[in-house]
Amino acid sequence: MTSKPKLSTVADLAGVSTATASQVMRGTGRISDATRKKVLAAAQKLHYLPDSRAASMRSGEKREIGFAIHRIANPFNAEVISGVSDFLETEGYLVSILDSRDNADRQRRNLEAFIRSSRGGLLWVPAENTDERTYALLHAHGVPTVTFLRRPGTGQFDHVGIENMAAMRTATDYLANLGHRRIAYFGGEVKFGVRQERITGYQQAMADHGLAPAIIWDCPDDKGEAMAAIRQLKAKHPEVTAIVCNGDVVAIGAMLGLQRMGLTPGKDVSVIGFDDIQDAALATPSLSTMAVSPYQLGRRLARVLLDRINDPDMPPGVALVPAELVVRESTGPVQQAATPQR
Amino acid sequence: MTSKPKLSTVADLAGVSTATASQVMRGTGRISDATRKKVLAAAQKLHYLPDSRAASMRSGEKREIGFAIHRIANPFNAEVISGVSDFLETEGYLVSILDSRDNADRQRRNLEAFIRSSRGGLLWVPAENTDERTYALLHAHGVPTVTFLRRPGTGQFDHVGIENMAAMRTATDYLANLGHRRIAYFGGEVKFGVRQERITGYQQAMADHGLAPAIIWDCPDDKGEAMAAIRQLKAKHPEVTAIVCNGDVVAIGAMLGLQRMGLTPGKDVSVIGFDDIQDAALATPSLSTMAVSPYQLGRRLARVLLDRINDPDMPPGVALVPAELVVRESTGPVQQAATPQR
DNA sequence: AAATAATGGTATATCGTTATATCATCGGTC
DNA sequence: GACCGATGATATAACGATATACCATTATTT
């Protein structure tokens, strides 16, 4: 292992001052062609790269942004990350990802280390149970921040999200129009606004159609857990003929669980998901879902952050993108035999 | 947006010098209880966090490591990342992830930015087509580096990997003992040693059983692509009754493709995967596979990096962990009707 | 030829910390 | 009362880059 080359090493090798070497590296100032070549050759030879800690301290330039997310394992999120990186990399930024696994303590440690390292901006899906102190922390340090998916009540940051309420209203409406009367809401995490928004949309549609009571069933965002949970839901509420799900992952888990109970999704029970991950189209039966394009969402998110970085004083804004109903095989008209009619 | 608090802000508010404030923050030196409290109160009030760029420049302490990986979207990798983070976080490190999406250019940009930011160490799954210059770059900067899964030929870094050859030999052997004669190798990327090792294991087992010729079929590591590719494989080689796959993702894709062709995995065609991702057990039929524990692998990986950081001069080492055969429903004895016997 | 402008390069202060040396002050000792 | 060792705090020089001001040379103008 060699030791790290620095600017003075390059300058010495090229026989110039560090000031000159620095100007060559950055292509600024008035430097003759001859010395420029000498310096570049030396830099090449030593594999020299300027230390961005020192550079950013002096110049204030920060071309690195962080994406603090609750679960990188989720394929939807992975797609979002692709969109974000593609956009920001063309602008010369490095994107590094911090995974909180939805743990508020881990998130806090991550964000503190992030702030200490003084990077250019933050994209953030707040973890469950994020407390006020964490918001205050980011605010106190003036970090350009855009929240994503989950919107803190404080409203002090830019936000990019999904039109959850409208989407769930559409999904529920669609199922009701197919003749379903007992429609349950399945999956999701308790604490955050996203799920509340979706549930509200579901409830509004239920009310519109005069359907009561609403059935809401918790379940972590995991395929295996959903398989087990759907059994309990069906045991407690055998009359349910349709299920709107908080996400595709739990929806697919629910379909698997139903199949193991001898029920056919799309015939005996209709299931609709949210997100449109790759597996939704590949599942058997294929999953109807409320689709959003994670890749495009990622690009949008990146653009909002750049705008914020370039203009730190504009008031925070909110961008909501719509979700679109995609009908596949997992939903269908209500079966006569399944629900006893009165 | 407030502006970032610095040490001098804290010191002023507490009425002491920056030297004193610094010592309080780090708990070193001789400081009276009274001033300690004053400084801590000021720091608290301002949400002060020391700038790690300045701190690490002066002290040389770097408590941040990078994980440069080829695909975060892969659930196996996501589990590895969890293992890595859990281990390193207890040691006070921040883990940030760089996703190359197996693109050598993107990887180079990522690694250059990484080096410029002078962090403590690097975990690295080299992208396809990584060139010598990239290895030289890391070496020239003396970055403590551990490669993972894919091992560069140069052998200059520590490495943690899987016993690919032995595992594939086991898998192929198992299928041959079930009576299969035409066994194909399916999936994987072309360039890297991992796949070559696995193919070698497959070929050795084929030779041991006097089975020829070997059939090797390329396919990107994607479920949808695998569904399509398996059709072509079966069209070209209808006599194949068993398929060893380069990974669970393509194996599951292959099963889906076979099912759409009216074939039943485990009866008409046996399929065996590699990795044991969550979906392997949840698939229908459930997938037999060569299992490795990604979480444990991650912890191991982290430990090797810490050892390297603590002792930069020890010669590079290699750790290979075994994979274990897990038999589920996707494999079974060869069917009489399926292969014409001579 | 003297004044001015353009060119190519360097000295130096600075960014926000930490490590080291240094400096008062005070109580205790002989 | 002069000396000593603790004690508690500070002044200052790094770390590796960049921005600015500045200084020599040449080249150009009149």
Name a few traits of the molecule:
homodimer; 6-stranded mixed beta sheet; 6-stranded parallel beta sheet; 12 strands; DNA-binding; 342 residues; elongated
Secondary structure layout:
The structure is a homodimer of 342-residue chains.
Chain A: H1 7-14, H2 18-26, H3 33-46, H4 52-59, E1 64-69, H5 75-90, E2 94-99, H6 104-116, E3 121-124, H7 132-140, E4 145-148, E5 158-162, H8 164-177, E6 183-186, H9 193-208, E7 215-217, H10 223-236, E8 242-245, H11 248-260, E9 270-275, H12 278-282, E10 288-291, H13 294-310, E11 318-321, E12 324-326
Parallel strand pairs in A: 1-2, 1-3, 3-4, 4-5, 5-11, 6-7, 6-8, 8-9, 9-10
Antiparallel strand pairs in A: 10-12
Helix pairs in contact in A: 1-2, 1-3, 5-13, 8-9, 10-11
Chain A binds a DNA duplex (30 and 30 nucleotides) through residues 6-8, 16-20, 22-23, 25-26, 28-32, 35, 50-61, 118.
| Radius of gyration computed on alpha carbons of chain A | 26 Å
Order of helices and strands of chain A: HHHHEHEHEHEEHEHEHEHEHEHEE
Mean pLDDT over the full residue set of chain A: 94
Tally the helices of chain A.
13
Secondary structure class of chain A reads alpha/beta
Query: What does the overall shape of chain A look like?
Result: elongated
Overall helicity of chain A: 40-55%
Largest interface: A-B, 63 and 63 residues
Strand content of chain A: 15-25%
- β-strand number of chain A: 12
Low-confidence sequence ranges of chain A = 338-342
